[in-house]
């Protein structure tokens, strides 16, 4: 489960050359380009345009060289090629005798292995086993977010494409962020045929349960009225029957866990659930996989439990340090994006003000 509960289809930004290459056989890595949400080839000049929500001006074009935007379902299909997966099994508990660990599933079945890797997401059950429910509990940020996937009328799709063919981040001085990006738009798509992801986030201490059902989109539209053209028009044109979700963003500052003598560890959001604005969750999960592969490939005797324990200790140490830094800097970045004065200082210092759209 994600810190913000989203349709499982939400796209993800990853970076070519980032350690994903070392985790995948060449024939699978070569297919990454084919599963992007659109037909934009990644390049050295890729940018994320950041707009002032009040004036509509471009604040900054943040370099995102060689960015890939991948749909979750297609990425998952690619990454699981040739791997035997047992779906619909929920892990209930784990026991370790310090040489091997046994997972018990909700259907009563059990699996024993010399290493169990808990990659069960932000609300990880395995993390709770290793640290106890209190220490493993997610912490709540001051940010609420609403999100949806929607088709747009042709005119809105055109307005959006004029700003950037794929994505944009719009920051309103009233501490509201609007993220819009292409969710699915392949070669033959005409304007208006594509599907877009909308995420709006803001600072609030209100209970997220106060907004449910159709009220979520009404609230997004109400917030959009303070935005400049064309962002206001684009959000207002989201079809009224679009299903939205609403949540408080959460995170967990990674802490060392007891890996039960190298028999149980964590990876991905289970190890470092973070707020999403920096787009680092998947990238860190890929780093975990690459780090684990590196440690296990370094074993001289794959049957030696002593060697495996030492490798998992090294893996844990690296993941815990990198994970904590990523969680903390993601939270810091999310908070900064909702603080207009800090944004302006950062943007003006780094790039100055620019007015035009970027492509
Ligand atoms: C809005 C948003 C935008 C994002 N954008 C980006 C981005 O641009 N770039 C980026 O790098 N990251 C991004 N992320 C973060 C990224 O989505 C996550 O970091 C990534 O999905 C983590 O993968 P994971 O496999 O660790 O966890 P998940 O994707 O959450 O998968 C966990 C899996 O474990 C299963 N599971 C849970 N509990 C159990 C159990 N008890 N037993 C068995 N299975 C279980 C779940 O069903 C799920 O299949 C974004 C996140 C959000 C919310």
From TrEMBL:
Gene Ontology molecular-function annotations: FAD binding; monooxygenase activity
Domain of life: Eukaryota
Domain (FAD-binding): residue spans on this chain: 80-329
Reported cofactor(s): FAD
Pfam families linked to this entry: FAD_binding_3
Protein keywords: FAD, Flavoprotein, Monooxygenase, Oxidoreductase
PANTHER family, A to Z: FAD-BINDING DOMAIN-CONTAINING PROTEIN, MONOOXYGENASE, FAD-BINDING
Name listed for the protein in its UniProt record: FAD-binding domain-containing protein
Organism whose genome encodes this protein: Endocarpon pusillum (strain Z07020 / HMAS-L-300199)
């Amino acid at each position: 489960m994600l810190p913000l509960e989203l349709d499982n289809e939400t796209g993800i930004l990853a970076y070519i050359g980032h350690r994903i290459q070392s985790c995948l056989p060449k024939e699978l890595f070569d297919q990454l380009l084919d599963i992007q949400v659109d037909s934009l080839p990644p390049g050295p000049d890729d940018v994320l345009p950041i707009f002032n929500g009040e004036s509509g001006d471009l604040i900054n074009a943040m370099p995102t060289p060689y960015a890939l935007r991948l749909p979750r379902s297609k990425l998952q299909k690619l990454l699981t090629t040739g791997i035997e997966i047992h779906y619909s099994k929920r892990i209930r508990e784990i026991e370790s005798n310090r040489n091997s660990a046994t997972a018990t599933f909700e259907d009563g079945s059990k699996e024993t292995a010399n290493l169990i890797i808990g990659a069960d997401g932000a609300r990880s059950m395995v993390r709770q086993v290793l640290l106890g429910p209190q220490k493993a509990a997610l912490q709540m940020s001051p940010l609420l977010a609403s999100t949806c996937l929607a088709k747009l009328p042709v005119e809105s799709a055109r307005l959006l494409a004029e700003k950037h063919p794929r994505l944009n981040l719009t920051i309103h001085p009233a501490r509201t962020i609007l993220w819009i990006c292409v969710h699915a738009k392949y070669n033959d798509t005409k304007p208006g045929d594509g599907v877009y992801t909308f995420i709006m986030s803001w600072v609030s201490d209100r209970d997220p349960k106060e907004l449910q059902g159709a009220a979520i989109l009404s609230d997004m539209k109400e917030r959009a009225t303070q935005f400049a053209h064309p962002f206001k028009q684009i959000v207002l044109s989201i079809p009224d029957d679009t299903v939205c979700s609403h949540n408080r963003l959460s995170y967990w500052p990674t802490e060392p866990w007891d890996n039960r003598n190298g028999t149980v560890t964590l990876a991905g959001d289970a190890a470092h659930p973070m707020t999403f604005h920096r787009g680092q969750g998947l990238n860190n999960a890929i780093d975990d996989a690459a780090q684990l592969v590196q440690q296990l490939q370094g074993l001289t005797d794959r049957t030696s439990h002593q060697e495996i324990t030492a490798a998992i200790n090294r893996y844990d140490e690296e993941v815990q340090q990198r994970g904590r830094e990523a969680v903390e800097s993601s939270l810091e970045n999310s908070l900064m994006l909702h603080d207009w004065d800090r944004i302006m200082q950062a943007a003006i210092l780094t790039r100055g003000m620019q007015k035009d759209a970027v492509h």
